[in-house]
Amino acid sequence: VQMSEMVLKSLTDKSNRLKKALEMQINSSKMERKRISTSVLQEQSITLTKLLKTDVVDQDEGETTVLEAIQNLDKGLSANKWTDIQLADAIRCRADLNKAYVQLQTLSDQETKWASQLRQMIVLPKEIVAVSSNVDLFGIDRFRKLVEVSVRDTNQFPSLFEKIPSSYFKVIEFIQHHRLTKPMLTKSDFIQLAVRELSLPEDVILRGTDFAHELGEALCYSE
């Protein structure tokens, strides 16, 4: 037990360091997104105000405002309502805004991945319970109670106590039926086969597959 507790402490320390690093990356990325959106909007504020006849600088809604500015510039370009000088300014402005928006989207995608890693981190036990299979079954009752508490934790098992669509179980049965003969499939081949056999919409099959992944019935990854 003493050795196990030492190992648990080491793993817990590593887990906490990883969690802290991910949280710092997410916070840093959010600050960088705000800096990029605020900077590009301030740099282009005069041009945008002249072309769109409105003040578009909004630090709280930076990313959304950048996209809206791009869309409004596109409307103006398609309407062909500006002079040649204004048109040149609009094209330059749009290029800068588009570059910034691509950077914002890249950072946002990274944040989503890091947040997913945080959610999927294994929660380590708080203690080590010594048990024995001898006649007295030492520690078994204590261990059983801890297991009962753990499996009712909706933070670790988000599907617990939720009503699950019957279509999800059809997807699971489909996976169980094919996994010996088709142990690995690309996403497109899997969806094509599932749609043909189950006659379910693609989005339902994808959600059902994610549910099967949570239960350990299948391993599916977007990358």
Short description:
This protein is an all-alpha fold and 223 residues long.
Topology overview:
Blueprint (H helix, E strand, L loop, with lengths): L1 H42 L1 H8 L9 H18 L4 H37 L19 H12 L14 H13 L8 H12 L3 H14 L8
Helix pairs in contact: 1-3, 1-4, 3-4, 6-8
Task: Report on the architecture of this protein.
With 223 residues, the protein is mainly alpha-helical. Helices cover 70% and strands 0% of the residues. The chain is built from eight helices and no strands. The longest helix is centred in the first third of the chain and has 42 residues, at 2-43. The chain is elongated. It starts with a helix and ends in an 8-residue tail after the last helix.
Radius of gyration: 27 Å
Mean residue pLDDT: 85
* Secondary-structure class: mainly alpha
* Shape verdict: elongated
Tally of alpha and pi helices? 8
Helix percentage: 55-70%
Give the biggest beta sheet.
none
Order of helices and strands: HHHHHHHH
Number of strands: 0
Share of residues in strands: under 5%
Task: Compute the separation of the termini in Å.
Answer: 40 Å
